[in-house]
Amino acid sequence: MKHLISSRYRAYGLAALLAASASPLALAPSAQAQEAITIEANVALVSDYRFRGISLSDRDPAIQGGFDISFANGFYVGTWASSIEPVGNSELELDLYAGFAFEAAGAEFDVGALVYTYPGESDVHYWEFYGSVAFTTGALESTFGVAYAPEQDNIGGDDNLYLYYDASYPLGDSGLSLIGGIGYETGAFGDPDGDGDDKWNWSLGLAWSALGVDWSLAYIDTTESLSEGNSTAVLTISKAF
């Protein structure tokens, strides 16, 4: 999902979600959840694990993967993991999440909660709420999203807000898609370099499928003046089952 979290998580997106929650429109389960129970898995190799523009693998390659269980009523649960630069005694990020996906007014909505854990290390896990709305305008696929972590001891007694926009646009019949996005973060994780300014991150790249797997190559950068946030090109090779 992350990435869902990616994967996988922004102000316009929050307003849209709030408006949708107050709407009397009937809600329909997303196409992904038409079967009674759907189980999906994913695996990926990345040249650098960048989360909201910041490297969590010390700019080294990382192995990632997870699975989701979706139900016909739109609810789902899942987990996702990645190798990381050690956090204390842990070299693994393990995320657990649950949410609800539905369609309304020609758009796809997704809301839920996620817990970040680091097996082998205590007092570092934290949780956040997330929501997104995705829609298509012509050939352009857009996603607006928000992630909010309430005040917690494990993130310094502060809260955190991340807003983002992601887009994908197919380049004719080439099999390539132009992908990109921009994000804004403020709060506990919003100033990694300590200069007093909130963080912005952005990306631009290409995605395609070949040899039975999905590929992407993206330029990623942030406003942060630290090596983990410097500009880089990230290659991703992934497969969904």
List the helices and strands and how they pair.
Layout: H1 12-21, E1 28-29, E2 37-46, E3 50-51, E4 54-55, E5 62-71, E6 75-87, E7 90-104, E8 107-117, E9 126-137, E10 140-152, E11 158-170, E12 177-187, E13 199-210, E14 213-222, E15 232-240
Antiparallel strand pairs: 1-7, 2-5, 2-15, 3-4, 5-6, 6-7, 7-8, 8-9, 9-10, 10-11, 11-12, 12-13, 13-14, 14-15
Pfam families: Gcw_chp
Structure description:
The protein is globular and about 45 Å long. The protein has one helix at 12-21, and strands spanning 28-29, 37-46, 50-51, 54-55, 62-71, 75-87, 90-104, 107-117, 126-137, 140-152, 158-170, 177-187, 199-210, 213-222, 232-240. The strands form 2 sheets. Strands 2-5-6-7-8-9-10-11-12-13-14-15 form a 12-stranded antiparallel β-barrel. It contains 1 helix and 15 strands; from the N terminus they run αβββββββββββββββ. The protein has 241 residues and is mostly beta strands. The chain has one domain: Porin (Beta Barrel), CATH 2.40.160.40.
